[in-house]
Structure formats: structure tokens, C-alpha cells
TrEMBL record:
<dbReference type="Pfam" id="PF02544">
    <property type="entry name" value="Steroid_dh"/>
</dbReference>
<keyword id="KW-0221">Differentiation</keyword>
<keyword id="KW-0472">Membrane</keyword>
<dbReference type="GO" id="GO:0030154">
    <property type="term" value="P:cell differentiation"/>
</dbReference>
<keyword id="KW-0492">Microsome</keyword>
<feature type="transmembrane region" description="Helical">
    <location>
        <begin position="149"/>
        <end position="166"/>
    </location>
</feature>
<keyword id="KW-1133">Transmembrane helix</keyword>
<keyword id="KW-0812">Transmembrane</keyword>
<dbReference type="GO" id="GO:0047751">
    <property type="term" value="F:3-oxo-5-alpha-steroid 4-dehydrogenase (NADP+) activity"/>
</dbReference>
<dbReference type="InterPro" id="IPR039357">
    <property type="entry name" value="SRD5A/TECR"/>
</dbReference>
<keyword id="KW-0256">Endoplasmic reticulum</keyword>
<dbReference type="GO" id="GO:0006702">
    <property type="term" value="P:androgen biosynthetic process"/>
</dbReference>
<protein>
    <recommendedName>
        <fullName>3-oxo-5-alpha-steroid 4-dehydrogenase</fullName>
        <ecNumber>1.3.1.22</ecNumber>
    </recommendedName>
</protein>
<feature type="transmembrane region" description="Helical">
    <location>
        <begin position="110"/>
        <end position="128"/>
    </location>
</feature>
<comment type="function">
    <text>Converts testosterone into 5-alpha-dihydrotestosterone and progesterone or corticosterone into their corresponding 5-alpha-3-oxosteroids. It plays a central role in sexual differentiation and androgen physiology.</text>
</comment>
<feature type="transmembrane region" description="Helical">
    <location>
        <begin position="84"/>
        <end position="104"/>
    </location>
</feature>
<dbReference type="GO" id="GO:0005789">
    <property type="term" value="C:endoplasmic reticulum membrane"/>
</dbReference>
């Protein structure tokens, strides 16, 4: 009984902390940059192979919800809204853990401490979202037919497709044998520097809208803060690297930001 009363308060506290960590991450990345990808050679430290690092860092966010699905005590998973929301979370991380890493072409090695931070976040957020949806989120029977859920689900799906398509464009920037960096063209890259980040932000904002919870909202805010800072770093880099970089492109939100 004590655990039943304590864990919901813990999940609320962890969600509030995630909001704070998102803002803190935004400030940190804006001040010192992000030590990954094209920027990682500037940072000292041990490194891991890109594919293995990516798969392992995302793994906790796949394992947590799968474990909750098979637990006998996952009482809320008899409800369709809980099932669908947890499935949305799982589908994203099936792609990020089992598919995306093996599509990487010549990714730069990942700094060990950068990997450790990503792994810790995926464990943290995987626990937060999985436990909340499997144990404590209570929805009315017709939640999945309400506009808030339906609009959120469509945004989640659209965001995921934009993210996947944008990653495909980035992987295919170089023709076989080519080296060096190219300006991304096509898709939403015609409007923003961080088209892949825009897609992922829309995806988790849709998830948050569909679930309408502090936990889902915290994840969406954290995602937006981190990806906005990364997109801003990319935006500056492209403008410094290419004189002909399109001036009208925004950072992460078409026509706005």
C-alpha cells in the first residue's frame, strides 16, 4: 500500500525534474555545444562505435515498456488508451534501437560520457513513461475517440514519419565515394535546418496531447529544449560552413523559429 501511494508522487516528481533538466540541457548546449556527431572531435575522451553506442543507449526505453507489458501486475494495461499510448512509445524505440542504428553510414564514434548521459536519460524516461501508463494513468472508456487523443495520435504519426524521412535524406546526402558535408535538400529541410528534430518534437508533442499527462508533457518539453539547442548549433554551423546556405530557412519550426 505504501508503494502504491509513494510511486505516483515519485512519478510526478520525476516528471517535474525532467522539465527542469530539459531547460538545463538547453542552457548547457547553448553555452558549450553538444559533444556528438560532427562536433565530437573537438571533445576529449574515450569513444564507442557509433552503431553499438546508439543501439545500447536507446535500449532502456525499449526494455522498460516491454517488461511492463508482461508483468502480471500491470493493471492499467487492460485499458485501450493505456495500451495504445504505451504501444506508441514502444514503436518509436523499436525503430530507434533495432532499425535506425543499422542504417547509420560512417557515423563518428560516440564519446563515452555522451553515451552515458543518453543511456541514463533513456532509463529515466523509459521508467517514467512505462510505469505511469502501465500502473496509474486512468482514462475514460471513450478516451480514444475524443478529439484530443485523435489529434495527438495523428501528430505523433506525422512527426515520426517526418523524422524517419528526414533521417533518410541526411543519410543519402553523399553519393558513393564522396566526402565532406553537403547542404540538406528536400522535404522539410527546404524550410528548417533541423527537419529531423522538428519531426521528433511534433511526435512527442502529439504523444503528450494524446495522453494529456504531466509525464507525457515533461517528455515533450525535454525533447523540444534539447533538440532546439542542437538545431540552433547546426544552424550556426551551416551558415559558417556554406556561403550559399538558404537564408530563409528557420532553425526548427517552419516559418516561425
Amino acid at each position: 500500500a505504501g508503494m502504491e501511494l509513494a510511486e505516483p508522487r515519485l512519478l510526478d516528481a520525476l516528471a517535474c525534474l525532467e522539465c527542469f533538466l530539459g531547460v538545463l540541457s538547453f542552457v548547457g548546449i547553448r553555452l558549450v555545444g553538444s559533444p556528438y556527431g560532427r562536433y565530437s572531435p573537438q571533445w576529449p575522451g574515450r569513444r564507442l562505435p557509433a552503431r553499438a553506442a546508439w543501439a545500447l543507449q536507446e535500449l532502456p526505453s525499449l526494455v522498460w515498456p516491454l517488461c511492463e507489458c508482461v508483468r502480471a501486475s500491470s493493471e492499467r494495461l487492460g485499458s485501450w488508451p493505456n495500451r495504445i499510448l504505451l504501444a506508441m512509445f514502444i514503436i518509436h524505440y523499436v525503430h530507434r534501437t533495432l532499425i535506425f542504428p543499422y542504417l547509420i553510414r560512417g557515423g563518428k564514434p560516440t564519446l563515452l560520457y555522451s553515451w552515458a548521459l543518453a543511456f541514463a536519460f533513456c532509463a529515466y524516461n523509459g521508467y517514467l513513461q512505462s510505469r505511469y501508463l502501465s500502473q496509474y494513468a486512468v482514462y475514460v472508456d471513450n478516451w480514444v475517440t475524443q478529439p484530443r487523443f485523435l489529434i495527438g495520435f495523428v501528430l505523433w504519426l506525422l512527426g515520426m514519419l517526418i523524422n524517419i524521412h528526414s533521417d533518410h535524406i541526411l543519410r543519402n546526402l553523399r553519393k558513393p565515394g564522396e566526402t565532406g558535408y553537403q547542404i540538406p535538400r528536400g522535404g522539410l529541410f527546404e524550410y528548417v535546418t533541423g527537419a529531423n528534430y522538428f519531426g521528433e518534437t511534433v511526435e512527442w508533442c502529439g504523444f503528450a496531447l494524446a495522453g494529456w499527462s504531466l509525464q507525457g508533457g515533461a517528455f515533450a518539453l525535454f525533447t523540444f529544449c534539447v533538440l532546439l539547442a542542437r538545431a540552433h548549433q547546426h544552424h550556426q554551423w551551416y551558415h559558417e560552413k556554406f556561403e550559399d546556405y538558404p537564408k530563409f530557412r528557420k532553425i526548427i519550426i517552419p516559418f516561425l523559429l
